[in-house]
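Lab manual, section 2.4: Encoding a predicted structure.

Procedure: take the sequence of the chain (287 residues), apply the prediction step described in section 2.3, and record the output as structure tokens. A sample record is shown.
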Amino acid sequence: MPIAKLPDVAGLLQLHNAHGDSAVISLYGAQLLSWQTADGSEHLYCTPEPSLKAGAAIRGGVPVCFPQFSGRGTLPKHGLVRNLAWQIDGDLVSGADQDVACARLSLSDSDATRALWPHSFALQLQVELGAGWVSVALNVTNTGDGAFDFTTALHTYLATSDVRNAGVAQLGNVRFTDTTIGNETNDEAIHDGSVLRIAGETDNIYWAVPAALVLQQDGKPYLQIEQQGFADSVIWNPGPSKAAQLGDMPAQDWAGMLCIEAAQIEHPVRLSPQATWRGLQRLTRAG
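Recorded output:
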């Protein structure tokens, strides 16, 4: 992963633990960009051509979508916070003597965010790095006087050796919407319980998914993906044609990544004043 190509202003945080695992987090967007297990394997995809201009988002790692998922609303796509500078919140816990390394980042509303979304909020993102696993937790607190609604997601880009030989298991017989075949009012279908295979462009929203999914590679379990607080899951890959149009990733990289996103979309969170909502995604190396 091209850490050296990211801008110095991003403020990259390095996490290490006693087991030899490592992670890299950018203060720009509070984005987990790299997660390597002790064997040196990288489990997150990040483009080697990251957007370096102000206001742009970095394609890869774990972008934070808040308070809107995708274009489902009147705000900019995926909301307001994935291209803002966050602050370190508390001490960074990292080193060869740490069983679990940890970093916390925070962000509050500003004149700029209130101009687009007139609500007061405080966000905290916590990354924990354990032996063969990493977790990302998002806390949303309503610091205003009135309730607000939001949708959200952790837009996780997983690295695969070849997505055409990968699969997503444990989806069960859940409702899903294939957003590649029309607009936001697509008819729903029911997943048949089989392992989902990726042959090209895929953009499916699975509603009320099981709490744990499994990413397979070459027919074997590779990663377990658990989520708490998030009800839905999005599975996305641009496929070769759309990847060639994106402009911020090499066209051939579509085969080396798969997004499995923890999301809250169908039922927006209604958050009362001074209340906090929490959502978490945990990735664990299988085997």
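Check your result against the sample. Residues 239-246 form the longest helix (8 residues).
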